[in-house]
């Protein structure tokens, strides 16, 4: 096994143009790799805490220099010279070093950046692509990348809130990444053409790259996705996934969806109708995060 030589973080801008971290891990044998930390526009109440600087004069308070300092000083100082037998052991080291229940001391962005950078470095040391190393860490064996899911349409907090649901994604069923990307391109461009024809909209993208047509309700957007897949000639080869992000339109146990007020039971029924009507293979956050009484439904 090889000891850790250093962790080094810098502040960068992510795909949204917001500050985040890029962390580089270097081992004593010279192997090194870097990882940047993702960040979402939609977060849950129980999620780990991203450490932001809070300086209103710099990136409107979203700067990450405190998290950068925690990597370069606290984490690097404590990790240098140590040997870890597994990804789990390294992650537990980071959690113990932070010592808080929600990663607020060092920052979830600092901790995740180091965890990802370490994982990439070990994969490189082994000569494995990252997805195969992830499989090994999980006790699995795989010879292919996970199935892609790619944002097609956005609403909610990712767009202008024209519909309550957050994302409709396409899931190409293909034998290779190259085929998946080619199919995705065709559906995406077809969807852009449809938006131009139907809504006279230009090809403008939302927060995570999806199109954001001015649909009047969720079913209209789902229908549009199905039509784009059909026009592309890929009905049997492309499925849909849905990120509902229901917490953002739930209040006091009721769901405010497309001008209707639904109970938890009615929201479950609406999701069941969508699953039965559209080629959905995944539904994320279909209910509000605290709506435990209906999650079992």
Task: Please explain how this structure is put together.
The strands form three sheets. A four-stranded mixed β-sheet has the order 4-5-6-10. Strands 1-2-3 form a three-stranded antiparallel β-sheet. A three-stranded antiparallel β-sheet has the order 7-8-9. It contains eight helices and ten strands. The protein is globular and about 60 Å long. The longest helix is centred in the middle third of the chain and has 23 residues, at 177-199. It has helices at residues 65-79, 87-98, 108-126, 130-137, 177-199, 218-231, 264-277, 292-295, and strands spanning 4-13, 19-27, 32-36, 150-154, 167-172, 238-243, 250-251, 254-257, 260-262, 280-284. By secondary structure, it is of the alpha+beta class.
Concise structural overview:
The chain has 297 residues and is an alpha+beta fold.
- The count of β-strands is 10
- Provide the low-confidence segments as ranges: none
Computed over alpha carbons, the radius of gyration is 22 Å
What structural class is derived from the secondary structure elements?
alpha+beta
Q: What's the N-to-C terminus distance?
A: 48 Å
How do the SSEs run, as a string of H and E? Answer: EEEHHHHEEHHEEEEHEH
Q: Spatial order of the strands in the main sheet?
A: 4-5-6-10
Number of helices: 8
Query: What is the residue-mean pLDDT, rounded to a whole number?
Result: 92
Beta-strand percent range: 15-25%
Amount of helix: 25-40%
Shape: globular
Main sheet characteristics: 4 strands, mixed
Throw out a few tags for this protein.
19% strand, three-stranded antiparallel beta sheet, 10 strands, four-stranded mixed beta sheet, alpha+beta, globular, 297 residues, 8 helices
């Amino acid at each position: 096994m090889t000891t850790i030589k250093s962790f080094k973080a810098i502040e960068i801008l992510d795909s949204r143009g917001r500050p985040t971290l890029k962390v580089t891990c270097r081992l004593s044998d010279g192997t090194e790799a870097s990882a940047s930390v993702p960040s979402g526009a939609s977060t849950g109440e129980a999620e780990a805490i991203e450490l932001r600087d809070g300086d209103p004069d710099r990136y409107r308070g979203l700067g990450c220099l405190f998290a950068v300092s925690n990597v370069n000083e606290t984490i690097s100082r404590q990790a240098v010279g140590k040997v870890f037998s597994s990804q789990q052991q390294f992650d537990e080291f980071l959690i113990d070093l932070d010592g808080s229940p929600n990663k607020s001391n060092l920052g979830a962005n600092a901790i995740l950046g180091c965890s990802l950078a370490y994982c990439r470095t070990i994969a490189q040391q082994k000569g494995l692509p990252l997805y195969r190393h992830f499989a090994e860490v999980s006790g699995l064996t795989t010879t292919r990348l996970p199935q892609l899911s790619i944002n097609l349409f956005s609403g909610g907090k990712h767009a202008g809130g024209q519909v309550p649901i957050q994302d409709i994604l396409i899931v190409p069923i293909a034998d290779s990444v190259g085929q998946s990307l080619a199919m995705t391109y065709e559906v995406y461009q077809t969807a852009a053409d449809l938006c131009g024809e139907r809504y006279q909209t230009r090809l403008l993208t939302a927060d995570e790259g999806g199109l954001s047509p001015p649909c009047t309700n969720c079913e209209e957007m789902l229908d549009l996705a199905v039509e784009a897949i059909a026009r592309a000639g890929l009905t049997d080869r492309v499925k849909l996934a849905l990120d509902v992000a229901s917490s953002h339109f739930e209040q006091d146990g009721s769901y405010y969806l497309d001008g209707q007020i639904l109970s938890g039971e009615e929201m479950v029924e609406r999701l069941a109708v969508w699953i039965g009507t559209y080629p959905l293979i995944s539904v994320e956050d279909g209910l509000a995060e605290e709506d435990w009484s209906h999650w079992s439904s």
